[in-house]
Amino acid sequence: MAKFEYAPAPESRAIVSIRESYGLFIGGEFVSGVDGHAFKTISPATEEVLAEVTEAGPADVDRAVTAARRAYERTWSGLPPKERGKYLFRIARIIQERARELAVLESLDNGKPIRESRDVDIPLAAAHFFYHAGWADKLEYAGYGPAPKPLGVAGQVIPWNFPLLMLAWKIAPALACGNTVVLKPAETTPLTALTFAEICQQADLPPGVVNIVTGAGETGRALVEHPGIDKVAFTGSTEVGKQIARACATGPRKKVTLELGGKAANIVFEDAPVDQAVEGIVNGIFFNQGHVCCAGSRLLVQESVYEQVLASLQRRLATLRLGDPLDKNTDVGAINSAAQLAKIRELSEVGEAEGAQRWSPPCELPVKGFWFPPTVFTGVSQAHRIAREEIFGPVLSVLTFRTPAEAVEKANNTPYGLSAGVWTDKGSRILWMASRLRAGVVWANTFNKFDPASPFGGYKESGYGREGGRHGLEAYLDV
């Protein structure tokens, strides 16, 4: 029988209009940088240059913070909460109206499959603005006392794995609570943040309420350490999160929330529906090429069903399609950068050197761009680096357990505590496990499900504070 092949179905690039160069968004306008430095953002799938982007220096960050402070004091904090909510609602509607454009732009700049940008990232970004628009005039019901006050100016630094969605997680609650914002997107994925600046203009958001400064680590450092910042919100690596925590502890007092790395355990019991669990495993680690803080990168399988689960998983991985992120049939896109690809390769080589067995389905990698095949390691022990360190790529480590107590012990044996998954037919076991797993989010018979009304955050080296739900409002209120 001939093998059925999917015909390519690429999304058109013609629907996006990318400028040759982008300035900084300060005080409601795009402006040039003080020192004239710039960097290039490229497509990880093809390595082509997409645009030249201004690199903000300390003087530019100071201009942005000054603009945010002026907008906070003169406009935003004094605006009736109901009016703030209208602005957030308007932004949400524009995101919906420009959803197709934003999805293509996200996949071009990030490398993720268009189906994920189109069906997950952009709709959830709009949902966060809709959700927080509703909170704007109801903050006294959030549980933080009558008439809670905003903090002032929030400095926000976001990662490259979910560029527009992480922007929405940060900006929507900050604005709903009456704060103004200076946001720095990741240097490898600035384009949807800069397009969001256009959306702010389109929504007639008062100048200075949202400011966007682009650049690398030094730009982020200047923002975090600026004395005019009242609140710092960061999503990214644990290493950088620790640096930010130290900087905020020794400098002017700032409220801080950190959403950092993870090494989540996806735990499959012998009574779990295997086919459903395998889909959850695939979604848990290969969604967005594994570029997910809460990715289920450790699979814990009860010994009695280990062979069955592994065989089913390998069959499923053989059906995944890797390639052009703009192709609607693509399941696995490009790794975001050459640096991240090098890290994934290095840790995978270490896994083999430490004695784990490496397996990938037959997979032809494109010649250009940054690519890594879906990879599974078996024979993994708790001491292996691939079982302890965050790889942030499409790499799964498989371990086994005999009893629920052993599963809990192995799952918690990590410096991280962001998320976990439990697969079983017994509701009582789900509750027993959830009460013992040291993770901010525990999914039951599913994985990587998000909702703006549900709080998200971690324990231990996965950070502190929550985003989403009424719990996430506390980060932007003086309580």
Which helices and strands occur, and which strands form pairs?
Layout: E1 21-22, E2 24-26, E3 29-31, E4 38-42, E5 49-54, H1 58-76, H2 81-97, H3 99-110, H4 114-135, E6 149-150, E7 153-157, H5 163-176, E8 180-184, H6 191-202, E9 210-212, H7 217-225, E10 231-235, H8 238-250, E11 255-259, E12 265-268, H9 274-286, E13 298-302, H10 306-317, H11 338-353, E14 357-359, E15 375-378, H12 385-388, E16 395-401, H13 404-412, E17 419-423, H14 427-434, E18 441-444, E19 463-464, H15 469-473, E20 477-478
Parallel strand pairs: 1-5, 7-8, 7-10, 8-9, 10-11, 12-13, 12-17, 13-16, 15-16, 17-18
Antiparallel strand pairs: 2-3, 4-5, 6-20, 11-19, 14-15
Throw out a few tags for this protein:
alpha/beta; Aldehyde Dehydrogenase, Chain A, domain 1; Aldehyde Dehydrogenase, Chain A, domain 2; 7-stranded mixed sheet
The CATH architecture of the largest domain comes to: 3-Layer(aba) Sandwich
CA(first)-CA(last) distance: 67 Å
Q: What is the CATH topology of the largest domain?
A: Aldehyde Dehydrogenase, Chain A, domain 1
User: Going across the major beta sheet, what is the strand order?
Assistant: 14-15-16-13-12-17-18
Radius of gyration, CA atoms, in whole angstroms: 22 Å
- Strand percentage lies at 15-25%
- Characterize the biggest β-sheet: 7 strands, mixed
Shape: globular
Q: Can you tell me the CATH superfamily of the largest domain? A: Aldehyde Dehydrogenase, Chain A, domain 1
Range of helix content: 25-40%
**SS-based class:** alpha/beta
Low-pLDDT windows of residues = none
CATH hierarchy class name of the largest domain: Alpha Beta
Can you give the mean pLDDT? 96
